[in-house]
Amino acid sequence: MRGLARKWVNRALGKFGLQLVSAGDDQRLALVDLLRQRGVDHVIDVGANTGQFAQQLLDKGFAGTIHCIEPLSDAHRLLSQRFAGNSRVHVLARMAAGAESGEASINIARNSVSSSLLPMEDAHVDAAPRSVYVSEERVFVEPIASIFAQTLGSQEQRILLKIDAQGYEGEVLKGAAGLLPHIDAVLVEMSTTELYTGQVDWTIIHQRLAGAGFALWNLLPDFRDRQTGRLLQFDGLYVRPD
Questions:
Q1: pLDDT of 131 over the 80 cut
Q2: Average pLDDT for residues 49-57, to the nearest whole number?
Q3: What whole-number distance in Å separates Cα of residue 10 and Cα of residue 20?
């Protein structure tokens, strides 16, 4: 009903060149506008799940190529089905991104999106009970720099690296070190407290990206504890200044 109401409102507003959007829609539109302004034509989507982020970019007008990496077998199957026949979205073989090549067990959360290679802390489950782990499965792990060694990194390409790895972002960045000089922007999920055992503190991620020549461009709230109001996770957008 809410979606239908928005459609009716937008139909009326369309006569005046206006559109009603949610905060999330507005953020994605702003991101696509930024990518267009900077000439970014490639996106590496680490932790693509079923393709929510990629679909949002396409819906907001992104005209480049998106490479999706997803470690969960069920999510990877749905992701592949979603973009079957779409020449601008490339779904890579099922794998996780990390610091080194190998094999690992990934914990599968009931809500799928909270799944991680790391154990989950009580603070996460308390704030989002449906994030509790229900099973696990084996997955191959590869560094981003190795995955794209032969296909990306030319001077003609401008790349956004998006990382949503549920506490594993630090390891993903380690494995992307060789590719970072060719990346124009990074959108990375960070936590204000330890939600996964052993995850790298957000300040360390900030220091790594700043040290690699990126400037903090925007902060996007993501996950909040409704009982306390505390912000637990946010997305940091980092851009390499021209």
A1: yes
A2: 97
A3: 6
Q: What is the residue type of 141?
A: V
Q: What is the pTM of this model?
A: 0.87
| Placement of tokens 């790391």 in the chain | 118
Cα distances from 150 to residues 50, 81, 96, 179, in angstroms, run 26, 26, 18, 11
The pLDDT assigned to 58 comes to: 97
Instruction: List the alpha helices (DSSP H) in 90-186.
Output: 122-127, 144-147, 169-175
148 near 178, Cβ under 8 Å?
no
**Phi, psi (rounded to 5 degrees) for 26:** -65, -40
Q: Tell me which fold the domain 21-99+140-239 belongs to.
A: Rossmann fold (3.40.50)
Tokens at residue 8, please? 């009716």
The three-point CA angle 109-44-140 to 5° equals 50
